[in-house]
Write a structure and sequence with these properties.
Elements (H helix, E strand, L loop, with lengths): L29 H14 L5 H8 L20 H4 L9 H6 L13 H7 L4 H18 L9 H23 L6 E3 L5 H5 L1 H4 L6 E3 H9 L3 H13 L1
Antiparallel strand pairs: 1-2
Helix pairs in contact: 7-10
């Protein structure tokens, strides 16, 4: 079933020391220069391993122990330590360069809003919206969001979204959407939404569709149930 939600694409910048080569001076043939730059980029390491070792090898023994790695990389220690000797060599760093990337979390979106804004006044409005929403679902005002409050917040958003759809599409205000009134995704998936096949999509049918978990989540739940 289809969840009525918006996806927010995020672009994060890495924070590791990188290797930079000298760039050629621009020439008239831009496409030729682009191809040359592409070839150089393919041969260039993602991370300057020597710089990485100098920065984090605190005891200068030529290896990195788990506690010498930055916190945001320690979860990948076992992947980097391929010979399982409890330390990471320069060779292991080079071979495991793909793992030398900071793990990002959805909540980092707030960091992007704060750090990447070129307009503090505009960014302030967006951060305030986040803050106001979190305060709104923090029903006991303890400064924390628990699972029940998160669930209630999700149900509130779904209700508001469905109410908005009904308000926009239910032109004659009879509490349901006809095929003639339907627009966008409601029109495209009208037959699937109209569960009772009465030729209308009512509020309850919209709520059921908007609240339904994606199919893959249902498959996982069934798999866990079988394993028990």
């Amino acid at each position: 079933m289809y969840r009525w939600a918006l996806l927010l694409p995020l672009v994060f910048l890495g924070g590791l020391p990188t290797a930079h080569g000298d760039r050629d001076e621009p020439k008239n043939d831009k496409r030729s220069d682009d191809r040359k730059d592409d070839k150089k980029a393919k041969g260039r390491p993602l991370v300057d391993v020597d710089a990485f070792m100098r920065e984090y090898d605190r005891n200068n023994d030529g290896f990195l122990s788990k506690d010498e790695l930055p916190d945001w990389l320690q979860y990948n220690f076992d992947r980097l330590d391929t010979d399982k000797d409890g330390k990471i060599s320069k060779k292991e760093l080079q071979e495991g360069m793909a793992y030398l990337q900071q793990r990002r979390r959805p909540s980092d979106v707030i960091h992007v809003l704060v750090e990447m804004s070129d307009c503090d006044e505009c960014c302030c409005d967006e951060v305030q919206r986040v803050y106001d929403f979190l305060r709104k679902i923090d029903k006991n005002s303890d400064g924390k969001i628990d699972a029940d409050e998160l669930k209630a917040g999700r149900e509130m958003l779904v209700k508001e979204r469905v109410d908005g759809i009904m308000k926009r599409l239910d032109a004659n205000k009879d509490g349901k959407i006809s095929k003639q009134e339907a627009r966008g995704l409601v029109k495209e998936h009208f037959a699937e939404l109209d569960k009772n096949n009465d030729g209308f999509v009512d509020r309850d049918e919209l709520m059921a569709a908007a609240s339904a978990k994606p199919a893959q989540d249902k498959d996982k739940a069934k798999s866990k149930s079988r394993d028990k």
